[in-house]
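Ops channel
N.P.: pipeline sanity check, posting one input/output pair.
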């Protein structure tokens, strides 16, 4: 299949840019793979510790070192809906492994926090850093060097990127990602958003709001809107780290269990003890990441991945940039309308044809690389399928249909919802930023208005409640970057800005913080870098300065004389309120060394 020249050009420059770091990485992976797992070289005491809790059969198998041992990394906890289904997965995996002639052990657990619980709370300031903590915790689990492959049980926002970073760090091991799936459909997302706006306006009380939220988030599985968690699942499938069709099957169903069993067998089959050795560090390459970015654009996915994909790629020695992501956006049409850029949820997306239909359409017009390696052992065309439960209780796959079951949710490539992905980079005298416009009406793509400056999202909420936000304006919410306070998501800004926009005001947001996968109808230039804490230009904006946000031209400018703007001293504020409470004290070293947003905002790379 011929790849579109624009996709090929971006891929080629990523390969060339990455050559020095990628070669070093691959050399390290290959040397580790040659050594193999350490079980055969461990002392008897070491090995006895490693299988002390196993049953007799597993002990015998691990003693002889002739069967593959699968390490399970799990993000299970029973408070969070997306992770609660993982409670039963380890036993299912162990049983499947034994039946396939292998062994499986839980190698370690990683923290899994929910941005939905911590939105607007101090705990949210640990959210982005939890990604790197997850990578570190995974490394601890795998450091016992007892394993021939690993399976990763993760779903939500920072969990999957953290697990991918760790998997690529242990790139000599095969890696299969096993999802839990989305919760069943509850209250429609547009109705939930309507009640939120009513509450912001004082037209709904807390009881009404809680009832709406409880009907939306009502059972096990991921939230059903297309935020970072479900963008993660899309990425794992289109990058070949899931089995074909695995992403959006609901938890606690026979098909979900069948996919988990099949993933276990596949992970054992691709170890060095078999004939299809597939170390993840070799499997995932520049083309895999380009496919992931293309999928993100085609589905209107989460802005968080402009940070996460960069960090994930760097773990594999691949130098992916915002420019690459933005240029790919220009080449990729939007093929999915899932809330917040549509009314449907991910269950509707899956029913309309889901990942199989999406991948088939992208392959038809050459927007993805088919000739990539995958955990399935075949190219990307093997993912253009529809998963079913087979007669024997296993997984059956049929070719993806030629037409969408719901063209309002999932479009053909020759009739897209819009000609580009809508996730773009902005550049100008305020630095670099990211904007997602797939849910923003075209008449709001360019906003020129005076700045209203806030140093915390609660300040803007207070001004809104007091009726002070009149006329057109661009809200500048600064000191929200990784070094200032861990770069929290600022979703408390969404309802009041949405209300003001609905009233006819021309409003926008400029911030060095995040808005994530739920970024919606209000134009928002986010992830501004350099951040205010680093003395970036955003710290030199003054109240009333005219700002022009132009998503069509890809620019973000403060309309102030260049000499005058350069001469201004950056504003600095006391950040003590972000430095203690809810565990923030022990993350001070993370804040001090965090990288810039365009480099992945990581403390690891």
């Amino acid at each position: 299949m011929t790849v579109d020249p624009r996709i090929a050009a971006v891929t080629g420059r990523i390969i060339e840019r990455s050559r020095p770091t990628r070669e070093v990485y691959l050399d390290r992976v290959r040397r580790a793979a040659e050594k193999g797992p350490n079980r055969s070289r461990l002392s008897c005491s070491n090995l006895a510790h490693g299988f002390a809790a196993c049953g007799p059969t597993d002990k015998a198998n691990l003693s002889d070192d002739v069967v593959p041992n699968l390490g399970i990394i799990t993000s299970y906890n029973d408070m969070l809906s997306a992770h609660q289904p993982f409670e039963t997965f380890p036993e299912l995996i162990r049983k499947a492994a034994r039946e396939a002639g292998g062994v499986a052990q839980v190698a370690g657990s990683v923290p899994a926090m929910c941005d939905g619980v911590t939105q607007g709370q101090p705990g949210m300031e640990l959210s982005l850093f939890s990604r790197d903590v997850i990578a570190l915790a995974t490394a601890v689990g795998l450091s016992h060097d007892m394993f021939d492959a690993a399976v990763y049980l993760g779903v939500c926002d920072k969990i999957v990127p953290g697990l991918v970073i760790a998997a690529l760090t242990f790139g000599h091991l095969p890696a299969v990602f096993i999802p839990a799936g989305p919760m069943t459909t509850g209250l429609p997302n547009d109705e939930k958003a309507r009640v939120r706006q009513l509450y912001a306006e004082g037209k709904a009380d807390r009881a009404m709001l809680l009832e709406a939220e409880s009907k939306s988030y009502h059972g096990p599985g991921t939230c059903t809107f297309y935020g970072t968690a479900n963008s993660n699942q899309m990425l794992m499938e289109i990058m070949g780290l899931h089995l074909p069709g695995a992403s959006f099957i609901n938890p606690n169903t026979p098909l979900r269990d069948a996919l988990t069993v099949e993933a276990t067998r596949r992970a054992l089959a691709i170890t060095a003890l078999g004939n299809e050795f597939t170390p993840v560090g070799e499997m995932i390459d520049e083309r895999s990441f380009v496919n992931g970015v293309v999928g993100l654009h085609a589905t209107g996915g989460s802005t968080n991945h402009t940070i996460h994909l960069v960090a994930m790629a760097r773990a594999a020695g691949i130098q992916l940039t915002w420019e690459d992501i933005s240029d790919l956006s220009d080449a990729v049409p939007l093929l999915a309308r899932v809330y917040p850029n549509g009314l449907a949820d991910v269950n509707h997306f899956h029913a309309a044809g889901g990942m199989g239909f999406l991948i088939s359409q992208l392959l038809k017009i050459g927007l993805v690389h088919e000739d990539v390696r995958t955990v399935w052992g075949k190219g990307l065309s093997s993912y253009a399928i529809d998963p079913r439960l087979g007669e024997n209780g296993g997984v059956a796959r049929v070719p993806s249909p030629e037409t969408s079951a719901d063209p309002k949710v999932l479009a053909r490539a020759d009739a897209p919802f819009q000609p580009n992905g809508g996730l773009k980079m902005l550049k100008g005298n305020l630095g670099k930023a990211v904007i997602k416009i797939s849910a923003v009406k075209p008449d709001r793509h360019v906003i020129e208005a005076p700045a209203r400056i806030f140093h915390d999202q609660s300040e803007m909420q207070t001004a809104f409640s007091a009726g002070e936000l009149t006329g057109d304006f661009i809200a500048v919410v600064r000191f929200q970057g990784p070094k200032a306070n861990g770069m929290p998501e600022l979703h408390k800004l969404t309802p009041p800005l949405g209300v003001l926009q609905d009233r006819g005001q021309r409003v926008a947001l400029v911030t060095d913080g995040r808005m994530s996968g739920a970024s919606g109808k209000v134009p928002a230039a986010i992830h501004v870098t350099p951040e205010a804490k680093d003395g970036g230009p955003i710290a030199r904006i003054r109240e009333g300065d005219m700002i022009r946000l132009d998503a069509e031209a890809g620019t973000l400018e403060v309309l102030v004389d260049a000499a005058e703007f350069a001469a201004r001293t950056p504003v600095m504020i006391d950040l003590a309120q972000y430095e203690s409470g809810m565990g923030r004290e022990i993350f001070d070293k993370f804040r001090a060394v965090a990288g810039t947003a365009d480099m992945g905002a990581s403390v690891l790379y």
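N.P.: looks fine end to end. The chain is about 40% helix and 15% strand.
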